[in-house]
Amino acid sequence: DVYEKEYIRKDGTILPVELRAVLLKNDIGKPVKMWAIIRDISDRKKAEKELKISEENYRSLFDNSPIGLYQVDPQSGRFVRANNVAARILGYESPEELMSSVTDITSQVYVNPEDREKALGWLKKDGFFNDFELQNRRKDGSIVWVLASVKIVRDEEGNILYHEGTNQDITEARQVQEALRLSEGRYRQLYESMMDGFVSGDLRGYAIEANDAFLNMLGYSREELHRLNYKKITPKKWHAVDKVIMKEQLLTRGYSDIFEKEYIRKDGTIFPVELRTTLLRDEKGNSIGFWAIVRDITERKQSEETLKKSHEKYRVIAENIIDCIALVDKGGLIQYVSNFAEVVGYEPEELMNINALSLTHPDDLERVRRIYHDSINRGWREIIYETRIRHKNGEYLPLEIRERVLKDCHENFIGSVCIVRKIIQRQQKEQLSPSLDQNFFDRRLTARENEILSWVMKGKSTWDIATILAISESTVKFHVDNIMKKFKAVNRVHAVAIALQRQQGGFD
After folding, report:
1. How far apart are CA 243 and CA 296, in angstroms?
2. Helix axis angle, 447-457 relative to 473-487, nearest 10°?
């Protein structure tokens, strides 16, 4: 047979050869010699060696590739070759299990028929497709997203040998993309539904993007706003303030404190706003723009002004009222007082943050503490009691204290307001005005209205009168309103003044 062996050249080198030997015989069939045809196969051996190395390299690359590699028989739809990654992507322990288990990739691997038809269409038309995202079904039935590329491999005569493809598991990337999409959707929804204005701009101060709230706040369309510099919507008196905030806060630490300024609407009106600005940077840390959250505080400013006027009014009332007023927190510490210097000799600053019970006579202390705790625990709205309070000179004075419990919106106790009155002063007033002890009578009023007005003239509150007469506070208020209407009085104090005038003038 033709066989291979090696020869030794004259120079000692080894030479691979291929040969066939033939035995020659004489007439009587006795072997006498032989001859052979010998071929130098050095080049072929070298090529075979290189091919073997190439195949080993290819096999190693194929088997150890970080992406899934496989070959599919287009006729049967079976895997004819696959590497470990391709098997693991589809949930199989080994390529051998994959090749033996999957008998038809079109029905067992592809999830969506539309994807399968699209991929086969590309192969038929172009002979390949690249980077197609599709869903595959794993061995356990779960879904895996893959990035697939497939091409048709043919022989020298153009016949299809197999389909060769690559798979990359992109499930995690798809999940990240989906999470990002949902996050962007939520951000966009939040962005558009914000009650506050949102605006972003470049370093020149031109708006790049703004939500509807900001546009409605200023009255501009999106296109109009893009053409405006922030100075155009800001009164000149605020330009220097903006410059300082930009230099000392925004460019220094990347964001500003919350600050107030004013904006100019499209119609020229000026309104107050509250905002915080944040600097935007690129990947290299360079400043590229800013964004800001802006709130229209017109209503708040109006409320603050109203509250300021109200505080001023009630401060004047509190400071000029005859009785003493004290605000005590839930810990029993005094937080505010008025008129205490006239009654107990202490200036307001001397009483701040001291325990209110520390001024109480030792013999009254336990009783007052019990009354105070009962009012909290039993939910009493108001309590009236008498006690002795230490004057700055050391003397104890008899006082009447009307205490109203304060609660927050959740009905939690937060403190109390106390109105303090000298009992001696009250007795003196009662002695000087004996006519007030008599019931008032006016023919225009009903019996109940005359009765209630008499108690009002004696300084009783709505709650006091309701308690004395065993009726509701709303009933008392109803009769007081009728009295004011009949007397044409603007308030109950005015009604009392009219009644005293009538009483002193002899009118009934």
Report:
1. 21
2. 90
